[in-house]
Amino acid sequence: MSKKVERARDLRSEKSGHYNCAQAVLIPTWEELGMDAETAAKVTKNLGVGMKMGSTCGAVTGGLIALGMEGADEQTVAEFLKVMRERHGGSLNCPDLLRRNQEQVRMDKKVHCDGMIYESVQLVEELMGKKR
User: Fold this and answer.
1) Under a CB-based contact definition with an 8 Å cutoff, are residues 62 and 28 in contact?
2) How far is CA 16 from CA 8, 19, 63, 86, 128, in A?
3) How does pLDDT run across 12-46, given as a tens digit for each residue?
4) pTM of the model
5) What is the extent of the structural domain holding 109?
6) From the CB of residue 111, how many other CB atoms can be counted at a distance below 10 Å?
7) 41, 79 in Cβ contact below 8 A?
8) CA–CA distance, 90 with 31 (Å, rounded to integer)
9) Maximum CA extent, the chain
10) Number of domains in the chain
């Protein structure tokens, strides 16, 4: 498991408080670039729960910001979105993902969301690793 995924796990643990999905995805990259976690948390504060309106999943929006910070090109961003859509039935909206989870897997919401976070962090790392 990568250091970024481990950090995301720490952020989602009970002892760390409650960081939303976007925060847990972005903070590990933000910190790696030498910036403070508090600022990353502020930047992504309103991206949880599908941008607070049931829209795009916070793990996805956090991944997009992380890709931007890593200097990803448009092709890499498109690949990130394509892979995430393919893995999750074509939708990246929070309510759709949660509904699909309940219909197919039936795992606890936190477990599902944590899985989305770790997947997003890993995919960003994989895609950016190909660019280096």
Assistant:
1) no
2) 10, 8, 20, 32, 27
3) 997 877 899 999 999 999 999 999 999 999 999 99
4) 0.92
5) 3-131
6) 10
7) no
8) 31
9) 41
10) 1
93 forms bridges with which residues in the sheet? 56
Residue reference for tokens 């909206």? 93
Distance, CA of 91 to CA of 110 (rounded, Å): 19
Closest of 78, 24, 22, 27 to residue 51, by C-alpha: 22
Query: Which amino acid is residue 117, in one-letter code?
Result: I
Pseudo-torsion of CA 52, 53, 56, 57, nearest 10°?
A: 50
Helix/strand/coil for 24: helix
96-122: per-residue pLDDT in tens?
Answer: 999 998 898 788 888 999 999 999 999
Contacts 24+ apart (CB under 8 A), 70-78: 70/29, 70/124, 70/128, 72/127, 72/128, 72/131, 73/131, 76/127, 76/128, 76/130, 76/131
Q: Shortest CA distance to 47 belongs to which of 111, 120, 129?
A: 120
Q: Is 95 exposed, middle or buried, given 0-12, 13-18 or 19+ CB atoms closer than 10 A? A: middle
**What one-letter code names the amino acid at 14?**
E
